[in-house]
Specification:
Elements lengths: L1 H22 L14 E4 L2 E4 H14 L4 H11 L6 H13 L3 H13 L6 H13 L3 H10 L9 H13 L3 H13 L6 H13 L3 H13 L6 H13 L3 H13 L6 H13 L3 H14 L5 H13 L3 H13 L6 H13 L6 H10 L6 H13 L3 H13 L5
Antiparallel strand pairs: 1-2
Helix pairs in contact: 1-2, 2-4, 3-5, 4-5, 4-6, 6-7, 6-8, 7-8, 8-9, 8-10, 9-10, 10-11, 10-12, 11-12, 12-13, 12-14, 13-14, 14-15, 14-16, 15-16, 16-17, 16-18, 17-18, 18-19, 18-20, 20-21
């Protein structure tokens, strides 16, 4: 039975390849997975992994819906396929963004009497959520009972995350409650998705309550849970509450990561607590995770915004010592700082350094320069730069 299934799949894929070759003679360069379990099909050696990989490539490159019809016809000819193979083919559609084709393929094989499992439907649900079709994934979830498939935690958390990403937080909350009522208890990932959705909607009190619920339900929040809340409180300039969450994380024995530190440092600068930001950055270097490029960029930008340019320059030099390459945002922050203090002569060195390090100026860089030149009465230089930009095809 297993051999018949494998032969059926290989014939299926071989016919797909034959059809593809007939219509499209572009050379085949896909690197398929290698398996030692080889069979002879149509007179040449092949294997199951390479066959599936070839079929997925066809899905990616051949946009006609006739591929699905070709699959349906071959299945009708009696070739046997198992649920693993069918799920792999569904995943092939989904990972290439062809979710509608995946649903069509699903409908075809169901109409032909095939049954799929939890993994199959989890794949479809994930594919729908990734293309912003969380509501459609909810509808699919409601249909699972007729397919004799039980929903599981993976399906629910994918949909909850998708609903939150689409801004449908109330629906995500309702689904969260439905999941619990069915005896499917949420895990830390489910809670994180809903907390993030509530934070994005500005509902921080409800998000904080969910954190408390996790503790009561003996579900251990992870560093991601705390990062979501610290970041949300900081962006709302509620720095005291952000620090409370940060302290709670440490009290529970969880080490803050670079994301936690970056979020709180950014929050300190937003609320003009420059010294607190500097102190936390020093703590990070001494006992926390190693600061990344973004950590330095936040510090440099914060210092420049608060006219503490010398400290920003010191950190910029420190980046070089740590072999961290500044990005365009880092340079833009420093250039803006120099321009605001009228130190136009120092800007050229930064521009030269940008080019030397493969970080070309972007439109924001030029806007900062034009603004700085105009405000420092270097109008001729501003006009010259403006004309050069037009000459390079860079418009306002």
């Amino acid at each position: 039975m297993a051999n018949n299934t494998r032969r059926g799949l290989l014939k299926l894929v071989s016919l797909c390849i034959a059809s593809y070759t007939f219509y499209n003679t572009k050379p085949y360069s896909h690197s398929a997975a290698i398996s030692t379990d080889k069979k002879i099909v149509f007179g040449f050696h092949t294997n199951i992994d390479a066959a599936v990989a070839s079929f997925i490539r066809l899905i990616n490159e051949h946009h006609s819906a006739s591929q699905v019809e070709l699959v349906a016809k071959i299945i009708k000819m009696g070739h046997e396929l198992n649920v693993i193979t069918l799920t792999t083919l569904i995943k092939g559609f989904c990972i290439n963004g062809k979710v509608r084709e995946a649903l069509g393929f699903h409908d075809k094989i169901i109409s032909l009497g095939f049954q799929l499992n939890e993994v199959s439907y989890g794949t479809l649900i994930s594919g729908l959520c990734k293309v912003g079709q969380a509501r459609a994934s909810m509808e699919l979830l409601q249909k699972l009972e007729r397919y004799t498939v039980k929903p599981n935690i993976v399906m629910y958390r994918k949909i909850i995350d998708g609903l939150c990403e689409d801004g449908l937080v109330n629906e995500a909350q309702n689904l969260f409650s439905e999941m619990i009522s069915l005896g499917i208890y949420p895990d830390v990932v489910s809670y994180n998705s809903l907390i993030h959705g509530l934070c994005c909607a500005g509902r921080l009190t409800e998000a904080s309550q969910l954190l408390n619920d996790m503790v009561v339900e003996d579900i251990n929040p992870d560093v991601c849970t705390y990062n979501i809340l610290v970041d949300a409180f900081c962006k709302k300039r509620r720095i005291i509450e952000a620090k409370q969450v940060f302290d709670m994380l440490i009290d529970r024995g969880i080490k803050p990561d670079v994301v936690t530190y970056n979020a709180l440092i950014y929050g300190y600068f937003l609320t003009s607590k420059v010294d607190e930001a500097a102190s936390l950055f020093d703590d990070m270097k001494k006992s926390g995770p190693a600061p990344c490029v973004w950590s330095y960029s936040i510090m440099i930008n914060g210092y420049c915004k608060h006219r503490r340019l010398d400290e920003a320059v010191t950190l910029f030099k420190e980046m070089h010592q740590r072999n961290l390459v500044p990005n365009t945002i880092t340079y833009n922050s420093l250039i803006d700082g120099f321009c605001k203090l009228g130190r136009i002569s120092d800007v050229q060195n930064l521009l030269d350094d940008m080019h030397a390090r493969g970080q070309p100026p972007n439109i924001i860089t030029y806007n900062i320069l034009l603004d700085g030149l105009c405000k420092s009465s270097h109008l001729d230089a501003a006009i010259e730069l403006f004309q050069k930009l037009f000459g390079k095809g860079i418009g306002p």
